[in-house]
Amino acid sequence: MERTTLRWIEKELSQLEEQMVRCAKEWLHIQTELDSKQIPAAQNFIHYLSLRSQDIRRLQHALHKHGLSSLSNSESHVLAHIQLVLERIGKKYLPNSKSPYPIDWAEKSIQQKRTLLFGKKLKPALPHIMVTFDKKFGTDIAHIKMLLENGMNVARINCAHDSKEVWLKMIQSILKAQKETGMKCKIHMDLAGPKIRVKLLNKGKDDGKVKIRVGDVIWLSDSPEGFEKNEVVISPNEAGIIASLQIKERVYFDDGIIKGLVIKIEPNKVGVKIIRDSSEKGIIKQGKGINFPDSTLNIPSLTQYDISCLPFICRHADLIGYSFVRNKKDIEYLFAQLETINRKHPHLILKIETPSAVAELPSLLLASMKKPVFGVMIARGDLAVEVGFERMGELQNEILWICESAHVPVIWATQVLETLNKTGIATRSEITDAMQASGSECVMLNKGKYTIKTLETLSNIFERSQGHHNKKRATFRKLNIASQFMNQV
Hints:
Layout: H1 3-26, H2 39-52, H3 57-65, H4 78-88, H5 103-118, E1 128-132, H6 141-149, E2 154-158, H7 164-181, E3 186-190, E4 199-200, E5 209-211, E6 217-221, E7 233-235, E8 250-253, E9 258-266, E10 269-277, E11 283-285, E12 290-291, H8 304-316, E13 319-322, H9 328-339, E14 347-352, H10 355-359, H11 361-368, E15 375-379, H12 380-387, H13 389-405, E16 410-413, H14 418-423, H15 428-437, E17 442-445, H16 451-465, H17 480-486
Helix pairs in contact: 1-2, 1-4, 2-17, 6-7, 12-13
């Protein structure tokens, strides 16, 4: 080994170590607000954000070149990992001067939280599997038993659909299926969140769909008054959106298939020019989703409908999914609402599905650490539309890394083996995607006709990838999420 290079490596690692310790001290004030069980994870989280607020790829290359750990896969115990490398190149530590949180502790911490959220399973090394329930599951106990026997660990009920009566039938059937099979299953209930969906107010209202072409100008408004009969008028179905929009902001319909641009702002209405139709069908349907990735919307993440659902959810659910959460104030508001209900609260699952949630992820995690355990769902459907499909591969990995550093279990959600689940035949790309999902603690399946076959395939993929998904060496360029958060000190 080249001594000069080793001295440079030791200097760089020592500076990182000092910076991590200093940053943790600067953030000591947050510890008084956290659950005591979360404090060690919070310290590691701050250490990791400190590390990722800078580019260390040159250092990683030098470490790898000399046969030393390049710090990849050290998210859960980053300070201890750096100190271990320093010891390998000769640094001496006094007794009790090293981090008390080594890799064994980190693995145990994450495993305990994963089990608290999603329950125990026969093969601990594989991810849990969450299955989204369809209305027909409410009375089909035989099918639910097959889901359990083929690997389902968590049943997901989406409160944006159906009713409390339907949800209760699902829950009763899940409980009966558990009793008959002797297999356990957690119940996850998603809050609906703001329902930003197409509501046709004028042309196409009776048919539930309307024809459009690239170049057309359609209108967003909360009222049909003042428009010609041949004009397309769409309400986003949530108050406060129209007034929030600005010129040149993008508007997406139907999971991003149709793209528009705000070109006119008039009293109580906004003109949107259609600039792309990926489907080439030229149809906007009633009830399809609308996304506003560039807009700061003045709407609550927790709606009055959500609040009315909370007592039911607290009675029946193990997990509560918080849809469209954006900042720590949203979390504080939900916790305040839950405190008014005199029951044990379900564990919180933060659904990351907007650019603001990604940017605020460190603050969201710290705010949630007031509870001893919680999880994160990477809701890749809405998130991909909001941030752009080309960024999803990068962002979903960043979220995984950041959550692992905070010892927060992650649910990998949306369109996992989607074609297989709906048609019975998988595409090559979604098999690869499913293998990447094995790096999370839980994987969610949407509704589909071939759920049993999809469960079998998913389990097979996880079995094959079990010994492989950590083999690649990551490099640590500067993470904007980390540097923006650390600059708040």
